[in-house]
Structures are given as C-alpha cells and as structure tokens.
Write a structure and sequence with these properties.
Helix content is 51%, strand content 4%. It is built from 4 helices and 2 strands.
C-alpha cells in the first residue's frame, strides 16, 4: 500500500519536472498536423496530478487501470485528488502526463 507521504513525494517531484518542462516549451507554438497553431486549454487536473496517478499505478499491485482509477483513486484517495475527473476524461487527459 502506498502511503500519503509517498504520494506527496511523487507529486512534488513530478510538479518540479512539469514546471521546468513548461518553462522550456513556453514559447513554442502548438502545431497540428495541418500546420495550424492550436491553443492548449487548461484541464481541471494538473499535469503533475496525472503523472502522479500514472506513476502510482506502475508501482501498485493493480492489473487493471480502469479498476484502479475508479475504485482506488476516485474512492480511497478522494482527499488527495479532489478534482479527479471521470475515467473517460482521464483517459483523454492521460497524454498530458507524457510529453506535449
């Protein structure tokens, strides 16, 4: 079982990485496949929260991510992730947890 201290430690590390990464790409425009500049909308969950959830899944004992998200994150860790979105929305946002 992962402790709250470990969750905070993982979140802080991913948040520091995310901030430095954002600084590096801040002035680069987002281009689509057709060459048009796209904006990046803010999500209700931060990139750091998304990455933390994905890292915790990799270190955990769950085999099924959907079950892990719906029954562990949304129920047991509700206080740690108060803005957790639905599973379907999380899957859409999951790519933000990697490189943009």
């Amino acid at each position: 079982m992962i402790t709250n201290d470990k969750i905070i430690e993982i979140f802080c590390a991913t948040d520091e990485f995310s901030k430095k990464y954002e600084e590096e790409i801040e002035n680069m425009p987002l281009l689509s496949s057709d060459g048009k500049v796209r904006r990046r909308r803010a999500a209700s969950m931060s990139d750091s929260e998304i990455m933390t959830i994905l890292i915790m899944f990799d270190f955990g004992t769950f085999d099924n991510f959907k079950h892990y998200y719906q029954h562990f994150i949304k129920l047991h860790l509700k206080s740690d992730f108060p803005d957790a979105v639905s599973y379907n929305r999380f899957v859409q946002l999951e790519s933000r947890g990697f490189f943009k």
